[in-house]
Structure formats: structure tokens, C-alpha cells
Amino acid sequence: MTRIRKIKDIFMQSLTWVASGISAWVLVAILVFIFSNGWKLLDRSVLFGDYHAKNIVSGFSDEHNADLTFTPPDTLEDGDVVSTRFGFAVRDEIDKEKNHVHTLTWVDDHSPLLNGKITTAGPTQGTPAPFKAGMNINKFVYLDNSGEAITVGRLKQQSPQEWIPLMDGNAKQITEFHGKEPGGGMRGSLMATLILIGLSLLFSVPIGIFAAIYLYAIAKQNRLTTFVRSSIELLAGVPSIIFSMMGITLIFPIIKLFGASGQSIILGSLTMAVLLLPVLIRQTEEALRSVPSSYAQASLALGATQTETLFRVVLPSARNGIFSACLLAVSRIIGESAALVFTMGTAIQDSPKIGSSATSLAVQIYVLMGGENPNFELSSAISIVILILVLALNLTVKVVSALSDKKGKA
Amino acid sequence: MENAKENVMASEAKFAKIRKRRRGTDVLFRNLFRIAGVIAAMMVILIIIFVTSRGIRPFLGSAEERVNLKYFLTGSRWRADQGIYGLGFVIINTLIVSVTGGLLALPLAILSAVLITRIAKGKLSIFLTTIVETLAAIPSVVYGVFAAGKITVLVRDLANVFGISTYGGNSSLAVILLLAIMTYPTMTTLAVSGIRAIPKELDSASLALGATPTQTSFKVIVPAARSSIATGFTLGLGRAFGEATAVSMIAGNALAGPSWNPFDITRTLTSTMLTGLHETSGVDYEIRFSVGVILMFVIVSMNLLVHAAKRRLEKKGGLSA
Amino acid sequence: MKMKKHFMTILTVILALAMIFTVVACDKKPDEPKTTDPEPVKTDKPAEPTTQASEEPEPAGDQTIHVYTRDSASGTREGFEAVIGFKDKLTEKANEVASNGAMAQQVGQDINGIGYVSLVTNFAENNLKPLNYEGVEASEANVINGTYTLKRPFCFTTRAADDYKSDDQKAIVAAFLAYMTDSKEGREVVVAAGGIADVEAGKPWDELKKDHPIVDQDNSGLTIVCGGSTSVEKCVKASLESFQGIAGNVQFKLDQTGSGDGWKRVLGDDKDGPNASDIGFASRNFKEDKEPVDTAMRSEEFCQDAIVAIVHKDNPVSNVTKDDLFNIFTGAAATWDEIGK
User: Fold this and answer.
1) Are C128 and C115 in a shared domain?
2) Are B22 and B140 within one domain?
3) Closest chain A residue to C23 measured between Cα atoms?
4) Chains touching chain C at 3 or more Cβ pairs under 8 angstroms?
5) Are residues B40 and B78 in the same domain?
């Protein structure tokens, strides 16, 4: 009997280990997958670069490029095609968005490529636009010996092996250069996410805290309170995709009165504000309840009014809890996608504006996965950023609550 | 004397004024709080009203554009291209994947909770809790990327072992696994807090009667915490039903069903809603709201069902936690 | 007591299943790169009598074909269904995917999958093999010379001439369309991005630009908003990017959702709605009856695109006929053996 019991016990115990082991294994698998796909891509240009490539058109006016010969450095790799006449090297590669590009890998310090001036109309017209390693070349326009303008480059469907010798051999003078700074960055989405966080909290935190105070201090045990409580409970169970429909049917007509034209960050943040209410209310109420009632009683006994007591005594004592609630709300915003797809749109923007559509980081992933060529690498890179942000926020919440626990005990 | 009296009266009047004003602020703020509370409470009703009013449009329009409500609720084909909208099989598919996913996660969650609360001590317990919390914190779109790159491959290989060919791993099974992973943290957290809330006496009594610690854990503590476990299960199911982005990346969108074979592609309510993403007007667009209404309805009825089951369990067991 | 016992039994069974699954998963992990090999799908059926030539590897054979199709708003789907001629007859077994990218990714993971994408898709990156259609390779040259017939036009339409936010907005849209559609330089960009257009027949931009003085001023305050077909995105994005540099840094916004929306967002119900756009694109011709474009400022075809039937790269099939595709997509041919006959 006892032996069977023992075996059974050990069996059940090992089952618990297996169960937790599975969850740990899944977590590790997710992290490994995301990091192995995205880590090598994650650098400054991805984090703070534009998503859309920035095209630059430069013109050359002086006849500097007469008869120079450049020697390439030894650091060039196989596949780099060198123009000894103009002092640069180019390689054919696949960029972050999986397109063929001709990337400059070397530009000599005396290369005429450094002397171009922007021809695009506008305030920057005429300013120097040196072409540096890392940029992509779309095409060159040069004048040949007979004075005819010839276009060469990727846009002519030529490989570097074709067009560089052509240009080196025939060009009398380069007149135009079309290049671009590669895109594929997430800065725009990062900014949109920040704006979204700011606006959502602006709308939902006051309402959330006030509603929590209502439930904590004012609500009596009556039907209304029960109704309010169960409604908020129900709201917490509404899936986020339904919130996005609410955004379209309920909030859009309202903000349209104020001149909003459509899917926009403001619509997205109002939708998020509603979505966050249950989280904020629940956490804030809990924080308020954890304030010893003696504080409030003491304050009231000293003659403070209820409002004063709430704002000067109870809320400040609960500030750590409320802060944690806000951080949790922020991490929810960062991770949310379904509620934003219909309300904030799916157009990736480099300089997001409140009144027009943009994508948050999470939505950018969704867009990338559904785009012309699904982009696991960039999606994973963005996922890493999201994960780091969300985990850091959760950690901060833990630290804050640990600190306030300590304070409470001391 | 006169002067002093006047002074007192004046200051009393001043106090009265201040008191009045303070009472005024009190009333003002009290009302503000109340309004905030009511606004928060109204949201859910507004959501139901507005989404529903939009969702019934496809069934009211002119005769040629109208969608047949009965077929919408029971139909087994979703052919937007032919104007046939039968959501019945989608509802069944959603139930299958969500409930199976939840049931798969439930035992894992209970076992993990037992390990965290009753077997592991100190740092280990905190470490295990951190794993669960980290899983809970991962946004769904990240799960989606993982699922599209890894879970589908895993399912495809598994199917190959049995000689079954799959749509690249996009299948009910992939969705079930994904949902099991995504619901596991919610269930575990609730189970842990449920077990922690059980009075020590219960534990001691069981041990005193000669039960081993493991026996106590599984035969006394877990049943006593079943109320929290059931709540966790409901919350997890809610997440499973409503999960959109990740699921739509791996569900595959079957045109007819229901799909009983776990290796077959499926179509869930949420994946149907996201496929309509590319429409902005017309029936294909409006029908999305109708699907949303059904989704809300399914979630609410599922909640009621689990609540009823919970109540029955509680009555039978006579224990409450 | 009895209930508890049952509970524990069920629990254990489910757990055991979960464990088995994990073990299988773990076992599979190391040789994962190999999983795209044709081998795993080979059935263990006894070797068939060698009536057919057997030099070719035969991964698919009697395996069921998995049909992938696009959502009903897709212009690629409309173009494909129109050429193959199976509208409304699509098999019930099809898997409907929401975008060109999802199609590429999913067929690239499915040895028995067949789908169709635009020629601009990067096949190698997605593990795909483009199929020849009626023996003709899908290439730009073959579309221009008319031998590759599985193709469709890329079209645009615009808001009515008096329906722009401002005269500048109207002028910049007109300038962009002239650049993309008429100029040599613009066509070059479209072609480099995978569209098919006759570059040599275009006019030099220097000449065209005289009619569009707006490009010589600072336009960074203007935004060209595009909507409609997702297939055109790559071409249009490339055109807009290169147009920026020669048109005073004009801004743009691409919100491509599907051909069905192209007309709606500039002339239809949605033209003043949340998704209002300046230019609406479709990867098919606009439907004369449902999408009248006569009020538009400009409305025409700007390039062509080949639709390519795709399979997994290890699939031995390399050519399909119109009948094959018809049979596959209507469900008449369920296995790979049944096509090519």
C-alpha cells in the first residue's frame, strides 16, 4: 500500500514538473525563435530609421571628374563591383524588405559622389548630399563623349557588372545621381506607439481613477453599484476585436463632429482608452483598498472634507498601485493589435500625425506579415523590441509593488 | 467687547461660507466620480447596442442584398464570392478549437499551480511564477509570428509522421496548440491565487489524517480551489474565443465545414472578421459586425455555462473557496 | 469521490497526450531544415506498376492538392478567375488567405499547395516555384510579346477633378500620374518594381514636366493618398518614392487593401469616409456598370502584371495548362496525378 502510494505520489509530482517544464520550454522556444530571426537585423538603422526609403536626387554641375583613377581598399568582398574612375564600389543584394538593391559599399574620400547637391525643389535644394557607403543606387545619368545623356543602373535592369564598366568607359561627366537611404525601420511606428500611449492614458486614466474612487468611496451597496461592477467585469471580457468595431460605430461618428476624417491615431487611442478602463479601474480600486482605512479616518477626524481626504491622503498613499496600473495599461497598449487594425489603419507612417492613420509597433508586424513578401526577420526584430518593452514594464511593476510592500511593512 | 463679538460673528460667517464651499466641492467631486463610474459601466452597453445595430443591417437590406439570417446562423458554407454567408460551421469550429485549447491548458495550469504553490520553495517558486507571467505578457501578435513560423511547421511534421498532408501546418491543431499556450498563463495565475487563498487548516487536517503531502495537494487542495480554477478557465476561454491576430495567421480560412479533422484548415469567428479587413463598405464589410455580435453572444453564453457548472460543483462539494 | 477519480483519470489522459506531443515535437526539432524535403510526404503505398516515367522524383503523386485562394476583395483573384474562367465554381476545399504575402508564405510551407500570386513576388525567398502557363514562362518579355496570357492590367482612377482639397493637391496628383504613366523615367521605375510597361515608348520627364510646374516648388506639405489593390503596392510605392525626389519632396500614404476599394475610396461611398484617397488602384479593369469612372480626373491602365501559378519549390510539376488550373480550382482534379492529362 505505502509503496504504491509512494509511486503514485512521485508520479503526480513528476507530472507537475513536466507541466511546468512544458511551459518553460514553450517560453524558451518563443524567445529563441524571435531572437534568432530578428537579432541580427536589430541595429540603429532599424530602430530609428524610416520605414519608407528616402529618395535623394543629386545633380553635379562642375567638371571635376576628368581623369582620376582610384584604388579600392583591400576590405572589399567578393561581389563588390568597383568603379576605379569614380571611386566607389557597389554590390547587388537583398534588402530588409526583400527587394534587389545596389548598395554602395565603398566611396573614396575624393570621389565625385561626395560633391552632389540636392536638386529636389524645396528648402533643401542646393544643399550638399554626399553619397556614402550603405546607400542604395537607383540610377546614374551621365553625358557620354558625344554629349548625349545616358541612364544606367538598377532601374535599367542592369547588374553592377554591366553598368559600372559602361559608365567607367563612356562617361565624360556624371550629371545626375538617384539614390536612396534604405528604409525598413520602425521609428515611425515607435513614435506612433508613444503618441498612442500618451493619448490613451490621457483619456482613460482620469475616468479610470474617478470610477475606481466611486466604487471605493461613494458607491453604496445597491443595485446601481452591482450593475456598475458587473458591467466593468463584462467589459474586461470583451475581446479586443470587438473594441475596434466599437471604435468604428460609436467613437468615429463622435470625433467626426470635431473634424476627424477617418482612421487615425486619435480614433485608435479613444478606442484603447475604453479598452483600458477595466484594467485601470480594477487595479486602482485594489490600490485604494490597500490604503489602511485609519488614514482616511484620521484625515476626516482632523476636519478635512471627503474630497480633501481622497486627493490629499488616500490617492497619494495609493500612488504606487496606481502607477503600476498605468504601466500595465501601457504594456497592454504596446501589445495590442486587433483593436487598432480597424481604427488606426494599416498604413505605415514615418512621421505619424494625431489626425491621420499610422501603425503601432504591433500593427506594423501584422502588416509586414501580410505584405507582398512576408517579412519574418523585420517582424521578429520588432517583436524583440515589443518584448523588451513589455517585460521591462512588467518588471518595473514588480519592483514598484515590492518597494511599496516594504514601505508598508516598515 | 462689541468688537470681539463682531469678530467672532464675522469669522463664524466666514467659516460657514468655507464649509458651504467645501461641501459644494464635495458634492461636485462626488458627482464627477459617479459620472465616471457610470460612463465606465455604460461602455459595455453602448458596445452591445452599437455593434448589434450595425450587425443586423445585412439582414434588413433590400431583398436582393439581404442575407438569410437562418442560414447565417446555421449554414455550413462561407462563400463571400457567391454571396453565401453561413456562419454555423464557423461557430462550431471556434468552439472546438477554443474549448480543446482550453482543456489542453487546464491540466497543465493546475499541475503548474500545484508545483508553484506546494512543491517548489522560495526562489524556484518565484522563478516558475516569472515564467508564467512572462508568457502572459507576450503580446498576441508576437505569438502570431511564432505560430506562423514554428507551430505550423511542428504540426506539419507531426502530420507527416502519420502520412497526412496538411495545408502547410495551418490547421485546427495548430490553432488549438496556440490557444493552449495563450490561455495557460491566465489559468495558472488564477489557480495559484485560488490555492493560496485556501485556509491552512484544511491542509493540516488532511495531513493529520495521514494523507501524504501530494495526496493532500491533489485530493484536498485542488478540489477546494476549484472555484478559482473555474474562473481561470472561463477567463482563458474568453481569451481563446476573442483572440484574433495570432489565430488568423495560422487558421487557414476554410470555405466550408465544420472541420472535424485536427489537421484540416479551419475558420474561426475572429479570422473571418479579419479577412474582411480588406473591405470598407458593402455586405462583406457589414457582415463583419454581425460576426462580432455572434462572437459576443458565444462568449457570454460560454461564461454563463461555466458559471452554472461551477455553481453545481459548489453545491455538490459543499466546499467553497 | 467517484467524480474526483474520473477527474483525475481524464486529467492524466489529457496530460499524457500533451506529453507525447511534446516528445514528438522535441524529436522533430533537430532535423527541421530537412522538413522541406519531399521525403516526408512520400506515402508507404506499394510501388505502383511503372506505367509512367519514373525518373522524376515523385513527392506529390497521389497526394491531395491543396488549393489556396485569395479573399473575395482581391484583384489577383478576380484576374485569375476571369482568365481561367471558373468564377463561382471554386472548390469548397480551398483555403482563403488574406494577402499576397500570406499566400506566398503558406504555399511555400505546403508541398501539396497550389496558389497564385503576382509576378512581383520574390519566389526564391518564399520557397516557391513559379509554374509555366501553357508552356510559357512567366516573364516580362513574354507578357509584352503576348505569349504569356495569364495576366491582368493595373489600373488607377482618381477623384473627380473638382473634388480635391486644393488646387495644389490636384496638380500634384496629376503630375504624379503623368510621371508614373507617361514618362520614360516613371515607367522604368514601374518595370524595375515588377510591373510590365513599354519603357521606350514613354516620353522624357523633362518634356512632360513643363505641363506640371508644381514639381518645381516645395511640396513637403502635400500628401498623395493612395488606396485600393494590394498587388500594385510595390510598383506604386517605388514610383512614389522616386517621384518624391523630383517633385519637391511630396509626401505620400499608401493604404492598400484590395481592388474592390480602389473605386470606392475616390468616387464611391467611401470617398468622404474614413479611408478617402486621391488615387484608387485596381489590379483589374474598373467595372463599367458598378464602378463608373467617367467623372474621374484621369483613369487608365498604367502597366500590366502577370499572375503566376505557384507551387512549393520541391513539387515536380513545372507547367500547367488552363484546363489543369480549371480542374484544380474547381475541385475536379483532386490529386497531382490527375493533372497534365
Assistant:
1) yes
2) no
3) A22
4) A, B
5) no
User: Which chains pack against A, by 3+ Cβ pairs within 8 A?
Assistant: B, C
For residue C33, being part of any structural domain is answered with no
CA pair distance A269, A279, nearest whole angstrom: 15
| Assigned domain for C260 exists | yes
CB distance C188 to A156 below 8 Å: yes
Same domain, B29 and B152: no
Residues of chain C with Cβ-Cβ distance to A94 below 8 Å are 125
Same domain, B17 and B109: no
Q: What is the CATH number of the domain that holds C291?
A: 3.10.105
Cα–Cα distance between C260 and C263 in angstroms, integer?
7
Same-domain check for residues B126 and B13: no
A63 pLDDT tier (thresholds 50, 70, 90): low
Q: How confident is the model at residue C34 (pLDDT cuts 50, 70, 90)?
A: very low
**C121 and C158 part of one domain:** no
> In whole angstroms, how far apart are CA A231 and each of A215, A338, B46, B55?
13, 22, 11, 21
Same domain? For C164 and C296 the reply is yes
Cell numbers that stand for B66 in this block: 439581404
Which residue in chain B has the smallest CA separation from C15?
B107
Q: Within this chain, do residues B82 and B213 fall inside the same structural domain, yes or no?
A: yes
Considering the domain architecture, whether residues C143 and C169 belong to the same structural domain is answered as: no
Report all structural domains of chain A as residue ranges with CATH numbers, in order of start: 47-181 (no CATH), 187-409 (1.10.3720.10)
* Domains of chain B: total: 2
Statement: residue C331 has pLDDT above 60: yes
pLDDT of residue A66: 57
Neighbours of C314 (CB within 10 A): 16
Give ipTM to 2 decimals.
0.85
Question: Residue B18's domain spans which residues?
Answer: 2-55
Q: Is the model's pLDDT at B153 over the cut of 50?
A: yes
CB distance B156–C35 less than 8 Å? yes
- Eight-class DSSP state of C249: T
Q: What is the mean pLDDT of residues C124-134?
A: 88
Contacts of B77 in chain C (CB under 8 A): 92
The answer to whether residue A302 neighbours chain B at the CB level (below 8 Å) is no
| Residues of A engaging C, defined by a Cβ cutoff of 8 Å | 15, 18-19, 22, 25, 52-53, 55-57, 94, 98-99, 119-124, 138-139, 151, 154-157, 178, 180, 248, 252, 261-263, 345-347, 349, 356-357, 369-374
Which of C116, C158, C132, C179 minimizes the C-alpha distance to C280? C158
Same domain, C311 and C210: no
Q: How far is B279 from chain C (nearest CA, A)?
A: 7
Is pLDDT of C61 > 70? no
pLDDT of A61 > 80? The answer is no
Whole-model pTM: value is: 0.81
Q: Which domain holds residue C142?
A: 62-151+307-338
So what's the pLDDT on residue B193?
A: 92
Distances (CA, A) of B47 to A245, A275, B55: 8, 11, 12
One-letter amino acid for residue C52 of the chain: Q
Query: For A197, what's the count of Cα atoms within 13 Å in the CB-facing half-sphere?
Result: 21
Chain A residues in contact with B249 (beta carbon < 8 A): 369
Chain A contacts of C105, Cβ < 8 Å?
Answer: 369, 374
Best mutation target among C110, C111, C311 (most B Cβ atoms within 10 Å) is C110
Q: Determine the residue among C21, C23, C244, C261 to mutate to test chain A binding: the one whose Cβ has the most chain A Cβ atoms within 10 Å.
A: C244
What is chain C's mean pLDDT, rounded?
Answer: 79
| B277–A19 CB contact, under 8 Å | no
Q: Tell me the CA distances in angstroms from C189 to A324, A344, C180, C240, one per residue in order.
A: 51, 30, 8, 9
Query: What's the grid cell of residue C320?
Result: 500547367
